[in-house]
Amino acid sequence: MTYKSVTLKRGKEKSLERLHPWVFSGAIATAEETIEEGDLVTVYAHDGTLIGNGHSQIGSIAVRMLTFDDTAIDEAFYQKRLLNAYRMRQSLGLQREDNNAFRLVHGEGDFLPGLVVDIYGPTAVMQAHSPGMHFARDIIAQALTRLPGNVVHNVYYKSETTLPYKAHLDPVNDYIIGGMETDEALENGLRFHVDWLKGQKTGFFVDQRENRRLLEHYSKGRKVLNMFCYTGGFSVYALRGGAELVHSVDSSAKAVRLTEDNVALNFDATGVKHEAFAEDAFKFLDNMDKDAYDLVVLDPPAFAKHQSALRNALIGYRRLNAKALEKMPSGSILFTFSCSQAVNKEQFRLAVFSAAAQTRRKVRILHQLTQPADHPISIYHPEGEYLKGLVLYVE
């Protein structure tokens, strides 16, 4: 296999020596003219020292490093990385009789930058976020089916919205291996329909698994409002936790239907005090009665997907949390989240602090939340920490 070559400017190898997996375009001194999107490249320091191999791409991140030595990027490479990722998930106890939904590959956190793989029962849903991973999709799919215990029967490729549009790759969402067996997955003993064909991301937000279980602990006897409910994960956990009532809100009528289906999948319709509303979140909060809910979940989609949107995102988080806080009775609990990678923990906490100060409520932090262990953060790539959450006690 032929690798193109990239040579860095003097001093620009320092971050790679610290095993950071990105080469920025401004760090490159020379590169072969024939390099195209997704090519395998070998990166050299200015003095010709080999640094490692990776995938090239157009943009500010010019190379995503896969190795920091001369290891070949071939079928054996992917098999080994996937096996290591799977063994870590096994050590976490995520594959059990009551749980078969988890993230198997989390990009840089599993030393496979540009690749995400979520497992839902016998199906792996694969997303490429780089052209290089797109071109390797068939090799990766085959490697997934060779994991121990025959854990993966089907591989669905879903990258139409995740690859850079300038690459002109025209990916098609479809099964690479197998087909539809079931759209049901188990999470901590609860059943969920997962729509990987048309749903957001890979079809389900497995990153909130442990936070949903924490919410279940606080739900008994409470009136719960789940904003931006999507598939109703928090709602289903709240109902199992003994909530007095649960209301789910999402601007998408399809999401509301999926939430109702997931509630019905787990509970007898009689006696379940759940209702779902297809409505804009800010409008719903404006119109809802004061003291109507004493446990509120705010889990919005990313307000800032890029650094340029940071200021408006922080304003959005402040407004959203203020609207909820001003309507909640004393003794309430607020679960509030940001999944915007461009917003760091301190910025999100400051936005929530500003909302609390604006509403003049007494607020205490009970828990500071993050992504679960199957969404690991490489110690060399702190940018991989994207999910931030606070659980607040409101007086």
The CATH class assignment of the largest domain is Alpha Beta
CATH superfamily of the largest domain: Vaccinia Virus protein VP39
How far apart lie the N and C ends?
A: 64 Å
Query: What order do the strands of the largest sheet run in, or round the barrel if closed?
Result: 16-15-14-17-18-20-19
Low-pLDDT segments: none
CATH topology of the largest domain: Rossmann fold
Average pLDDT figure? 95
Strand percentage: 25-35%
Give the count of structural domains: 3
* Biggest β-sheet strands, sense, barrel: 7 strands, mixed
Total helices: the number is 10
Pattern of helices and strands: EHEEEEEHEEEHHEEEEHEHEHEHEHEHEE
Which percent range fits the helix content? 25-40%
How does CATH name the architecture of the largest domain?
3-Layer(aba) Sandwich
Global geometry = globular
Would you report the number of β strands? Answer: 20
Report the structural category. Answer: alpha/beta
Radius of gyration over alpha carbons? 22 Å
